[in-house]
Amino acid sequence: MDDYDMDSLSDTSRMIKGLPPYNMDDQLLPMERRSTCGCWAWTCLVAAMNSLAFLLNFLLMATIFAIVLLPTIVVVYFGFQCHSRVLHSTASYCKTILDDNSSSALIILGFVIMSPLIVVAMAIYCGLVRRLRLFLCFQPWARATYKGVKWRWYEDGGLCGCAKEWSSQVKAWV
């Protein structure tokens, strides 16, 4: 303590201005900025790749939810189709099997079983996305601004991470 002058040190004198990169070997130090035209071109490319990754995730989620929620959709559809105050279809099953009380019961049953099926669909979607590593398809915007930023998915075994085994090392700043 005698070597340091306590009055000249402040609480903020050694603070880091920003978080360091996750892995110093992945980037060229110091990173070089792109030209204006190059930055715009790479921005369009990164935006197109991120839009494609978003579309892929959205289509996967819509497909899984449509398949898992199909029983609810069918039950509610038949309930609304055969109820006399909603659509009142002239189909034979509406006249012989389903009256207003049973149609109301189908509507209620459909909405009651919807909540657990939404949880199941979301669990299936999250598990599949984690297994396929689809969120690694999103690229950072620094890829467009700086030279030397590597593609996130390249060293992890391709787009879905199938070529390498699971990485047990988590790189995150806490």
UniProtKB/TrEMBL annotation:
The chain crosses the membrane at residues 58-80, 105-128. GO terms for cellular component: plasma membrane. Keywords: Membrane, Transmembrane, Transmembrane helix. GO terms for molecular function: PDZ domain binding. Belongs to the TMEM88 family. It comes from Podarcis lilfordi. This is Transmembrane protein 88B. It is a multi-pass membrane protein. Its main location: membrane. InterPro entries: TMEM88 (IPR033355). It is found in: Membrane.
